[in-house]
Amino acid sequence: MHLEQAELQVIEAGSGRQAIQYLQEYAIELVILDLMMDDGNGFEVLQYLRDANMESLVIALSARREVQDKILTLGLGADDYVTKPFSPVELVARVQAQLRRHRPHSSYPAKILRLNKLVLDIENYLLRNDGISFSVTPVECRLLEMFMQNPDRVLTKREIYKQVWNHENFDDNNLSVFISKLRSILEPTEDSPHYLHTIRGIGYRFSGDGQ
């Protein structure tokens, strides 16, 4: 549903065998591959992809957190690895990032946002603050994109959640954690510009000039 809302064409396979069948029948540009399947794990599908020299991009999903799983998956040729649980918004962002890299002249152009001393590279999840670069997660990037596109405007928590997480039932604690992470990047010291302002009982305001 989230991928289709992002105007991506989706074919869903209910099993590993069906996935291999679809890969044989269709030109699949990107595969979101769950490593744990009812009829054999996703490593077998990944192995099939690489043995057949297919150029499909692969984003692997797994609840496993062991480092060796990541090493094995990437060693077999996965282009990205997402650990469950994850935000659908994050997954869509990663899909679009992979497609941009694979299709540099695609309909997913790189986006650069600038606001005074802040420069957000949306494609590469990088924020430059007064010339210093920081890596940000896809969710942090979506938050920054929303704030930087709406400077000096009060955004409600529900509005933020609907835009960034794509649903209205916001989790106050979850949002607070991400805001705290952004503050640690944007406002590392007391003397730093103050970009994020809490509007009690409502939400947040992003100051365009850091005041």
TrEMBL record:
Domain Response regulatory: 1-99
Entries under PROSITE patterns matching the protein: OMPR_PHOB (PS51755), RESPONSE_REGULATORY (PS50110)
GO BP annotation list: regulation of DNA-templated transcription
Residues with PTM 4-aspartylphosphate: D34
Keyword hit for Cell membrane: no
DNA-binding region(s) from the entry: 110-208
Species of the source: Paenibacillus chitinolyticus
Protein's recorded name: DNA-binding response regulator
Membrane listed as a keyword: no
InterPro entries (UniProt xref): CheY-like_superfamily, OmpR/PhoB-type_DNA-bd, Sig_transdc_resp-reg_receiver, WalR-like, WH-like_DNA-bd_sf
